[in-house]
């Protein structure tokens, strides 16, 4: 499975749309692009493997592997990138401003269900991050 995340960059935050083929899975919010600096920037565009991981703090969640010069990049719920994220990606039901969204827990659950089912079928799951095309 390959998920495509198309991003729109703004000084206050990054907003995106996450697709499985032509199907929109959810929207996303992230920190602004700040040259891939730890804790303050979204991660670089590219292709990354997603794996299932468990921690006491977050339960089962998705880990983004092999991010250049970064580690611990997750998909997890958040509705305000600047206040709640340190480089991770938050699924949201709706983007309401740059780096801000709504109903993140619902979107996160939907994404995990889709990805975990693919993993249970033995599929590898990859995330392709790219800049949104201007139409």
UniProtKB/TrEMBL annotation:
InterPro entries per record: DUF5675
Domain DUF5675: 5-115
Pfam families tied to this protein: DUF5675
Record's protein name: DUF5675 domain-containing protein
């Amino acid at each position: 499975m390959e998920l495509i995340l198309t991003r729109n960059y703004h000084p206050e935050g990054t907003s995106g749309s996450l697709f499985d083929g032509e199907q929109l899975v959810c929207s996303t919010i992230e920190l602004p692009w700040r040259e891939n600096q730890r804790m303050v920037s979204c991660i670089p565009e590219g292709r990354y493997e997603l794996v299932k991981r468990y921690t006491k703090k977050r339960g089962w969640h998705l880990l983004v592997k092999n991010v250049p010069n970064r580690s611990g990049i997750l998909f997890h719920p958040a509705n305000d990138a600047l206040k709640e994220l340190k480089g991770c990606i938050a699924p949201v039901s709706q983007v309401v401003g740059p780096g801000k969204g709504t109903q993140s827990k619902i979107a996160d659950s939907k994404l995990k269900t889709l990805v975990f089912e693919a993993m249970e079928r033995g599929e590898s799951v990859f995330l392709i991050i790219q800049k949104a095309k201007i139409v």
